[in-house]
Design a protein that fits this description.
It is built from six helices and eight strands; from the N terminus they run H-H-E-E-H-E-H-E-E-E-E-E-H-H. The chain has 153 residues and is of the alpha+beta class. A four-stranded antiparallel beta sheet has the order 3-1-7-8. The protein has a four-stranded antiparallel beta sheet with strand order 2-6-5-4. The chain is globular and about 50 Å long. The N and C termini lie far apart (38 Å).
């Protein structure tokens, strides 16, 4: 049964390994990409102002290109990168657990889909910094940066 597989720890480990290897390949090939992730699992350091935080949706799309791509790395099962948010380009280090990445996107096309529903126990300090209030509208934050308009149809 599908539900048993997607909740399975071994299946989740395979998904995480595939995410890590695919992102590693993109780093090696210098290929920009986007990730669709569960914002409830993402942490920001320093924390984003509430005016920006409230703009995110539960599933948030981040594009890693330019400076954001150059700062990106995988460390302790997290994708970590620096990004600017809002009209003031508020800088923050973003930490995304690999299993919270639901899609990896290149040129507006999903190249990887993670269907694992397994939830790892939180043991990392990065996951301790998660914003407990959640965030609501990622598109508004995404659209606030004029350079992102090229990704819209």
């Amino acid at each position: 049964m599908l539900e048993n597989i997607i909740q399975d720890r071994d299946f989740a480990q395979l998904m995480k390994k595939n995410i890590q290897e695919l992102i590693g390949l993109f780093f090696q090939k210098e290929q920009n990409f986007g990730i669709l992730c569960k914002i409830e699992d993402v942490s920001f350091e320093p924390e984003l102002p509430e005016s920006i935080n409230t703009e995110f949706r539960p599933l948030t799309l981040f594009f890693l290109a330019g400076y954001t791509f150059e700062t990106a790395r995988i460390e302790n099962n997290f994708l970590i990168f620096e990004a600017g948010f809002g009209s003031d380009n508020f800088g923050s280090i973003v930490s995304v657990p690999l299993l919270s990445i639901l899609q990896i996107i290149v040129d507006e096309t999903p190249v990887f889909i993670n269907i694992s529903g397994y939830k790892e126990e939180e043991t990392s300090t990065a996951s301790e910094n998660i914003d407990e209030h959640g965030v609501k509208n990622s598109m508004a934050s995404f659209l606030s940066n004029p350079e992102n308009s090229k990704f819209l149809k």
